[in-house]
Amino acid sequence: MTDRNATAAKASNEDLRPLEGLSRPADAQERIAGAVRTILEAIGENPEREGLHDTPQRVAKMYLEVFEGLYEDPRDHLKTQFSADQHHGAVIVKDIHFHSMCEHHLLPVHGKAHVAYLPAGGRLTGLSKLARVVEGFARRPQLQERLTDQVAQAMEDVLAPEAVLVVIEAEHMCMSMRGVRSPGSTTVTMIARGTWKHDHAARMEILSLLRS
Ligand SMILES: [Zn+2]
């Protein structure tokens, strides 16, 4: 496992905040479709031929779907909370499958997120809500480092836990189908916040549970 905290921390000073979404342009679908048509023409294809005729509109609808996380604030999912006074242990959700799009190539990234936190003051959220947060941030033009950071930040902002750990393992199609062409290689990013940031033993214990 590679500790990419340094990379993520550097990026977090720039464009990682705020986490809230954008407003969607009213003509988004038409503009995407027009751009796709332009790409087809630019590569020498004929956008009017039968197989490509509906492609610009089809791709436009798909883009609006895979980028729909741009138009929400995924932190809202965590506002559904309940308290459990007796619960003082860590909460771990493993293998949250997600799909995203690399913002450098607009090619898919897919993988798994593992999320853990140590609740403070008995503040807990539903397990499915953590998956929704991952999905909300994943459905944006993304960098894996930023996705990792944003999930951790959202949990800190809303749950104010004693500690947070987010690990993401993903395959980037821009590495598999072009450039260095290394299919199957996985990029791992990790962020630890709160007490787990400095408590090496506690962090290793959670990591071994995440990876078991
Ligand atoms: Zn890429």
UniProtKB/TrEMBL annotation:
Annotated residues that bind Zn(2+) are located at C102, H105, C174
Which PROSITE patterns does this chain map to?
Answer: GTP_CYCLOHYDROL_1_2 (PS00860)
Q: Which GO terms describe its cellular component?
A: cytoplasm
Gene Ontology MF term list: GTP binding; GTP cyclohydrolase I activity; zinc ion binding
Give the EC number: 3.5.4.16
Which enzyme class?
A: hydrolase
Listed pathway(s): Cofactor biosynthesis; 7,8-dihydroneopterin triphosphate biosynthesis; 7,8-dihydroneopterin triphosphate from GTP: step 1/1
The residue ranges crossing the membrane are none
Q: Where is the GTP cyclohydrolase I domain?
A: 33-210
For whether the record's keyword set contains Transmembrane helix, the answer is no
Q: Which family does it belong to?
A: Belongs to the GTP cyclohydrolase I family.
| PANTHER family (alphabetical) | GTP CYCLOHYDROLASE 1, GTP CYCLOHYDROLASE I
Its recorded name reads GTP cyclohydrolase 1
Gene name of the record: folE_1
